[in-house]
Amino acid sequence: MSELDPRLAELLRRSPPPAALDEAHRAAVHTAARQAWFRQQAQRRRMNLGFAAAACLMAGLAGWALHAGLDVPQNAAAPVVAIHETDERAVGLAAAAPAPASAPPPSARAELHDDSDLRGAGPSRQRTAGVEQQKDLGAATGNAIAPPAPAAAAEPAMAGAMARAPAAPATFAAADAMVAESKEDVPRADQRTAKAALAMPVAATARKTAPSPISVPEDAPERGRLLAAAAVLDAALNHRLEAADRLPAVQTALASLDGIVHPAADDLRRRLRNAIQLP
Amino acid sequence: MSLLRRYLDSGDDGAVGTLVDRHQAGLLRTAHAILGDAAAAQDAVQEGFVRLWRDAAAVVGSAGGRASVGGWLCTVVRNAALDVVRRKRASPLPEQVKQPTPPQGTAVDDAQLLWAAVARLPELERAAVVLRYRDGLSYDAIAEQLGKTANHIGVILHQGVTRLRADAALAGIAP
Fold this sequence. Notes:
The complex is a heterodimer of chains A (279) and B (175).
Chain A: H1 6-13, H2 23-77, H3 83-96, H4 106-113, H5 123-141, H6 154-164, H7 170-181, H8 191-209, H9 223-237, H10 243-256, H11 263-276
Helix pairs in contact in A: 3-4, 3-6, 3-9, 6-10, 7-8, 9-10, 9-11, 10-11
Chain B: H1 2-10, H2 13-35, H3 38-54, H4 56-61, H5 69-90, H6 108-119, H7 123-134, H8 139-146, H9 150-171
Helix pairs in contact in B: 1-2, 2-3, 2-5, 2-7, 3-5, 6-9, 7-9, 8-9
């Protein structure tokens, strides 16, 4: 390894480097430091503002999505109580109430009321099936087939009538009743024509009063009362109540909804009031 | 690193002054060794500090804050000085051969001639020779300043001394 001549090294050592920045350069360094710091602060503020704006946007989007997501499935996914289910619950309620003397036991009533397989069949078949079931029950329980309950006993009559009444389409049941009233003075050949003519306005009324299925949301207050009223409404709309039982039963159901503040209760009230006006 | 954090957090002017005081001497020595010019060395060091303020957040964040501010500054100043040398080489100026500090004593002419010979060395050889024989740094310290290995510094020094000796002999200031 070669070394520099000591004299040359000494000559180099005599010219030392600058030990510190001069004033101008030092001031420039401090100024640059301040400027850079303020620039970074401004950048940081801008970034924070951007993040805050993005967070607000995301929160808004999330809220909107939540709202939109809850809005649609709320109707679709909320448990809708089917008509036959409300009927079963109503039967349960009726079992708790004092039954009329001729009413079959609750288990028999529930079995009797399970007429879902008869819906959609012709009215004569439904009536026949209902009568046969009632006869069978009467034989089983040893009781005669009871006449319709009096109007004064509203709630038991409502429940009993629901249990007894066969499912019949509103159109033909109402038309049957009206034709039966005028049977004496209408010739037999014209009875079918008169029945069809009478069925048309009755069907229109029925369509107005039952536009949609009856549903009671799970979160509704006093849900038991709502379900019972819905069952009464369903029975009234489907003419499973005798004409004499229908009005007091519907009125009692309407009265049972007093004090319940809920959209479902309002809807039931409106539909029960319409049901009162049914022929 | 804590000073740099203090500067970042509050823009503390005291932290800036402390950082400058702590690192300026070593940086000026390296820049002067490479450039051979005091004014150019001051400019290079100033540029290094300006870059430090500009990239302070990145320096603090790099390697989890374990990076050395001194090492970072040294690299930046060395590169700035080498850039200046390359620019001067591309467009040589008359001031390039001038020496910054007038030597004291009787050997004025010999010192001027010697510094002129040093200025003619390639930049790395010049920096290595100056840091070794003017500042008395070890090979390891020079290697750290110039970003080379100690062995590489030995090779560079050998080449530089050989070249300088021949040049000085030609100038009549060395046997």
